[in-house]
Each structure stands twice: as C-alpha cells, then as structure tokens.
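Moderator note: this is an archived Q&A kept for reference. The question asked for a predicted structure of one protein chain; the sequence and the answer are reproduced below.
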Amino acid sequence: MRSYTVGDIPPDYFFTDTVYLDGEFVLAAPEMPFTAGLIQSLSDWDFREVLSDGGPEASYTDKAGTAGEPAPAVDLASAPADAEKLQWAEDFCQELKAYVNEIFSVIFMREQIDFNGVAERIRNSLDRIREDQRYLLRVLKKTENIKEDYLVAHTVKSTIIAIIIGFYLKLPSHRLIELGAAALFHETGMILLPVKVYMNPRTLSPAEQSMIFNHPVLGYNTLRRYGFPLAVSVVALEHHERENGSGYPRHLTSSKLSLYSKIISVVCSYVAISSYRPHWEARDEHTAMLEMLKNRGKQYDDAVIHALVYSLSIYPIGIYVLLSSGKKGQVVDANFENPRFPVVQIFGEQNPDGKNKTQKTSPEGLRIVRPLTREETGG
C-alpha cells in the first residue's frame, strides 16, 4: 500500500480503494469522501499518514470505472430482527422510563423514597439485563425521544450501561444493586433545579452556572436525608469528578473516588456525548467512544474505559454501519476478543434456515467502514 500525507489530501476527495490508518483500521471506503472533518480529526489525534492501494480523485468512481451513487437510505423498520427479544427490550426500557419518571416526581415534591423498594426492583432486573444486554443496547437509541425530559432518557441509558459494565467487572449481586441505584439517582441534584437551567440552549447566567456547579452537593445531601447508603449517595456527589482532579465540585483525584463514582463518571459522559439536548447535536456512539478513549488515563479510570469498550465495542452495539462489502448493517453483539471487530447483522441477507445473517467482522474479511448518518438511517 502507498502512504499519503494527511495534510496533502484534498478535502472531500474520494480514494479509488479503501483507506487504512495502520494497515488494518478502515478509515474510508471508495464511496466515502475523505472529509475535512476526518482530516481534522486525524490531525487532532496526531496521525500524519494514511495507507491505501488507491489514490484520491475529485469524484467517486466505482470499481467498474463508472460514476457511483451513494446507496439509498435503509428502511430500518423493515430490517430483519429477533422481534420477540427486541420487543421485550423496548418494553423494558419504556417501563424503566415510567419508573424513573415516578421517582423524579417524588424527588421534585420532596417526598420520601423507599430505598429497599428501589433495590428490590434492580435485583429483579439483573438476570434479564445480563441475559439480554445486547438487545437492550440495540433499542436504547430507538426508544430515545428528543421531546421528553433529557434527564429521564439519560438516567435510563446510564443505569443499563452501568450495570452492564458491572457485569464485565464481575461485581457480586449486592454491589450491582448498589451500582444500579447509584446510576438511577446520580442526577438527583439536577432534578431539583429548574428545568430551564439544564434544558435551555442559551448561555447560562452566572447564577445558573453556580447551580449546575453545585448540583452534586445538592443531590448528595438529598439522598442522605432519604437515608440512602453512603456508597450510593456519594456517587451523586462525585460523578462529575475526574481522575486528574479536573472535575467538580471538590476536584478530587483518582485515589479518593469510589469505584461506583468512576463507573458513573464514564457512563454519564459517554451517554451525554451521544444524546440529544437543546444545546447539543448528538454525535453517534462510535464518535462518543473515540472521545472517551481520547481521554483515557486523563479524566477517566482505565479499567472502567476498558470495560466500556469491551462491553459495547468500538462501534457500539446498536449502531448502524456501512460495511466493506458495500452493504449496510447493525452492530448486534460485542467481540470480547477484539472490540474493533464486533458482530454485525447484514441487512437484506439471511442464512439458509431463514434466520437473520450475522457475521463477526475481522481485519481480513468483512469490516466496518463507518457509522451511517441519521439521514442514511431515516432517523
């Protein structure tokens, strides 16, 4: 393969063959423009060269030598799926949203919460989350509604992913229950603030910024008044702290943070990057994962980042992708041997027995080229 200096590649040109970062990691397929954004990202990551057997051209030409057109948007509703499992996962997420809404109303009204009841609900959910986590991860984005309260969707997503990370870290059941409760209540302080403070697209006033900065303290004090265990309450106080001391409100460093706080810190940030808010255009989960990896060893605990990546994959479960075959698909399971090459379901293909065709991606075979855009998925 030939080497190309990133800074010399004209923006929005098309390579005549696949472009690789290191001989294995696919950056762009022939039908994918080498955008200015990609060039900037490579520069930010200090990658100076890329590899390809082809060369850059001003317009896309397919391998037959004719001008190519981008593939049409895929109709996700018609994509084959394990309908029963996916329906259960959707129902589970909707029920959890209703429960979180109920909890938030109780907190907002300053009424008492029965922690034992919360713990029992989480306990009863652990086996199903463990068994069907890949289906839950596939539907989380689908059940997200931009018109609903951001904190509800954020909490549901954070709780499920936190428990999945807990499974990967082999936490015993009683600790998984505490972790799940910590995730459910980590934004207690934010719930008590006016909605306009955290949902308004305008620049916050100094007083509003102070509210945001102090919401972890408010949340911690509230949970302690409820009589919640210290291990759960402290996460509300510490979930915006960072390993290097750059977080808030107390600028604590790694050795002073609890494991639950480290997990929720990672999950909370990952979910925030990939979720819609009035002042934030959500990035896809693959981009969110790269953002988390970029901060590895600086803001977040390495072991927790490792657990996130291996549980969800570099191309996280649920994301829709363009494949090196030119077909489209969805990531449906993780590859615990190599998170860069997850299992994908290929749209429009079935096995001889009629079941949906899934295939593990690999460096030598089928590869993921890039995530699909919202326009390509009809989202």
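Archived answer notes: Residues 329 and 347 are 5 Å apart (CA to CA).
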